[in-house]
């Protein structure tokens, strides 16, 4: 083992000079790791903030090298698996030198656990699936990378994430767009502070942007627009009749907007659109 000096972070960290370096070509043609917020709040994942999951058939996997932008002081757990045992899981710095490697996972799985990033910058993972040459055409491989932005503090609660998703869905339902970051965080704070979703919907309904999008429709036209703008489809006759009756017998339009936003159909429809919602270690919600 030798040491490496990072000019970016002005620190020295260990490298394993007895292991082969990563070629510049492999670094240039690596697949970028795009993190998303951890969704499974099991005990074993209590400390993870973000995750990346890759699964594929070895026959169409073009490279087994992945790149991610790590943050100094954050902690990373990396797992590579395959139908057969991969060669050796390695983690490289941006010079292409090995800075961590397989710590003895079970057969078929290699792992690097508890790696603390010594600098903010690019890191490269070699899952080493292809080098063994043991694979058949239908063999499956996978890579999981977990990020803990503030080791020791634990991830945000599931309730916090659910609240943020509720506000983001209402934004998307009201304005047919992703929320701007400043507005999203403002309304999340309001919601966490006790504002009811219907009250928030009333604020959205009274905005100039909302009326530019919806105009000044009749109750029937408003229901048609809710179906089309929120759910992305035309209203079925039973649903149309139900909501028009509700509006004509006292339900506010902002309440109808909130109901549509939190409908099971809209939650499913927006799951991919809002999948990148995450929170920084400063507590700012971003996409």
From TrEMBL:
InterPro entries named in the record: DUF4214, PBS_linker_sf
Protein name listed in UniProt: DUF4214 domain-containing protein
Domain DUF4214: 201-269
Taxonomy, superkingdom: Bacteria
Lineage: Bacteria, Pseudomonadati, Pseudomonadota, Gammaproteobacteria, Oceanospirillales
């Amino acid at each position: 083992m030798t040491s490496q000096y990072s000019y970016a972070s002005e620190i020295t960290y260990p490298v394993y000079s007895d292991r082969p370096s990563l070629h510049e070509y492999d670094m240039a043609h690596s697949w970028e790791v795009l993190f998303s917020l951890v969704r499974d709040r099991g005990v074993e994942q209590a400390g993870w903030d973000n995750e990346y999951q890759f699964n594929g058939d070895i026959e169409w996997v073009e490279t087994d090298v992945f790149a991610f932008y790590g943050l100094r002081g954050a902690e990373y757990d990396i797992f590579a698996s395959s139908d057969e045992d991969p060669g050796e899981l390695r983690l490289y710095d941006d010079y292409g030198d090995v800075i961590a490697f397989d710590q003895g996972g079970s057969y078929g799985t290699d792992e690097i656990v508890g790696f603390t990033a010594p600098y903010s910058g690019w890191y490269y993972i070699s899952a080493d699936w292809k080098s063994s040459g043991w694979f058949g055409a239908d063999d499956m491989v996978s890579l999981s990378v977990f990020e803990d932005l503030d080791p020791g503090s634990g991830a945000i609660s599931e309730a916090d994430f659910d609240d943020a998703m509720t506000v983001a869905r209402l934004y998307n339902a009201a304005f047919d767009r992703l929320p701007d970051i400043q507005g999203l965080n403002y309304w999340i704070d309001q919601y966490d502070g006790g504002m009811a979703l219907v009250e928030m919907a009333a604020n959205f309904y009274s905005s100039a942007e909302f009326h530019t999008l919806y105009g000044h429709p009749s109750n029937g036209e408003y229901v048609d627009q809710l179906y089309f703008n929120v759910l992305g489809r035309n209203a079925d006759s039973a649903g149309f009749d139900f909501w028009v009756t509700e509006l004509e017998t006292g339900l506010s339009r902002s309440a109808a907007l909130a109901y549509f936003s939190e409908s099971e159909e809209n939650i499913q429809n927006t799951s991919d659109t809002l999948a990148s919602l995450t929170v920084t270690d400063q507590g700012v919600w971003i996409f």
